[in-house]
Design brief:
mainly alpha, 5 helices, 0% strand, 117 residues
């Protein structure tokens, strides 16, 4: 769930879906070690990761991948919206995908070069 209790969609290919199911049914339960909370992603100590915790994980992954460009979790939302628009998805569909109730909010996320169209 995102801001305002809105559903968030996460597209994934078959292998990622299989890995996520395995994580939920096996690894997450082991990590939680009888702790109870509603966080999907948990850390090594079984506690749910906050936004800052997720950002810290992303920073470590960026470093491991030798990516010098600085970006955060919110940048990924901007990026997917931009790619979806560039591939021909309508702004209305992108707004629904992102959980926006206003097209103005969605337009902020869609940074594309008009020449590329």
């Amino acid at each position: 769930m995102g801001k305002g209790g809105k559903s968030r969609y996460v597209p994934m290919v078959g292998k990622v879906k299989a890995d996520m199911i395995n994580y939920i049914q096996n690894a997450r339960l082991m990590l939680m070690n009888k702790q109870v909370h509603d966080r999907l992603i948990v850390g090594i100590k079984g506690k749910g990761l906050s936004g800052q915790g997720m950002y810290d994980v992303l920073k470590r992954l960026r470093k491991r991948a030798n990516l010098n460009k600085q970006f955060g979790l919110h940048t990924l939302r901007h990026t997917i919206a931009t790619h979806l628009l560039a591939q021909g998805m309508s702004l209305e569909q992108i707004a629904k995908f992102l959980g926006h109730s206003s097209l103005e909010s969605t337009q902020i996320y869609t940074h594309i070069n008009v020449k590329s169209l």
